[in-house]
C-alpha cells in the first residue's frame, strides 16, 4: 500500500512529466543576458538542460522535428495541450495532430 502511495506521489509531482515544456523553454529562452559572462551563460545552460532529459531521447530525428514544431507554434491553447502530454506519449506526427 505504501509503495502505491509513493508511486502515485511521484507521478503527480515528478517534473519529468513536463519534459516537453522544459525542452521548449530550453530552446526558446536560452539567450545570453546583458553583462552575463560566458561562464555564467554556460552554467545556466547546464542547469536548464538538467530538467530536459536529453540523454533519454530514443529517436533524435523525431525529437528534433517535434521540438522545432512546438517551438514554432504560436497558439497558446495548442501549446497548453502539448505541454500536458508526457514526452513518451507522443511523437512529431501526434504533435501535428494535436495542433490541427
Describe this protein with a few key phrases.
100 residues; mainly alpha; single chain; 6 helices; globular
What does this structure look like?
Helix content is 64%, strand content 0%. By secondary structure, the protein is mostly helical. The protein has one domain. α4 (60-72) runs parallel beside α6. The relative contact order is 0.13.
Outline of the structure:
The protein has helices at residues 2-13, 19-29, 38-49, 60-72, 76-83, 92-99.
Strand percent estimate: under 5%
Over all CA atoms, what is the radius of gyration?
A: 16 Å
The overall pLDDT, averaged over residues, is: 86
Low-confidence stretches: none
Number of strands: 0
Specify the biggest β-sheet: none
Query: How many domains, as an integer?
Result: 1
Helix fraction, binned, reads 55-70%
The number of helical runs is 6
Terminus-to-terminus distance: 42 Å
Could you spell the SSE succession in H and E letters?
HHHHHH
Query: Would you tell me the structural class of the helices and strands?
Result: mainly alpha
What's the oligomerization state? Answer: single chain
Dominant shape: globular
